[in-house]
Amino acid sequence: MLFRKYPTYCDRLRQDMAFLTSNGRLSEQLVDKIILQLNRVYPQILTNKEAEKFRNPKASLHSRLSNLLAHLQKEGDKPCQEFYRALQINAEQLYNNLPSRRILSPTFFLACFSIAAGLAFYMYCCNSDSKVLGGAKKILGFSPIIIGRHVRNICMLYMEDTQRNK
Questions:
Q1: Structure pTM?
Q2: Which positions of the chain have pLDDT values less than 50?
Q3: Do 129 and 145 form a contact (C-beta atoms < 8 A)?
């Protein structure tokens, strides 16, 4: 099976469906705006007949929205992408809070690992063994690329202070 780096818009819509259909997330007016935008801008995505069906005030908002999202998923990735575009235009705040947009990136995990490794290195440097401390100062002195200059300066000042207090 081929590994996809980024999920498709259909996958994202499947992931966001429960969030979007929960009570109070989308108002009736907002759903109507999205349906009209999809119908007017992309009639090949949502025909007039389909738009009327999804805007039927006799059906509950939850069922109309669920049916619309299911319909878009059946149509493919482009209709799902256009739904997200319409949602972003009409409800920016809601769009930014979607579960599919809040997934932690690999960069986040790399940053967390770097912080943990930095803290472990720092704890190792705070060992009372002066040989370890001297070696650590040399490494920290030549590591502006590894850690930020300000963090390096604070660590070096702390280590010098702890060495003087011994």
A1: 0.60
A2: 1-4, 130, 132, 144
A3: no
3-class SS string, the chain: CCCCCCCCHHHHHHHHHHHHHCCCCCCHHHHHHHHHHHHHHCCCCCCHHHHHHHCCCCCCHHHHHHHHHHHHHHHCHHHHHHHHHHHHHHCHHHHHCCHHHCCCCHHHHHHHHHHHHHHHHHHHHCCCCHHHHHHHHHHHHCCCCCCCHHHHHHHHHHHHHHHHCC
CB half-sphere exposure, 18, CA atoms < 13 A = 3
Report CA Rg, the chain. Answer: 27
Identify whether the C-beta of residue 140 lies closer than 8 Å to the C-beta of residue 125.
Answer: yes
Q: Convert the pLDDT of each residue in 112-134 to its tens digit.
A: 667 766 666 666 666 555 454 55
Q: Count CB atoms within 10 A of the CB of residue 35.
A: 22
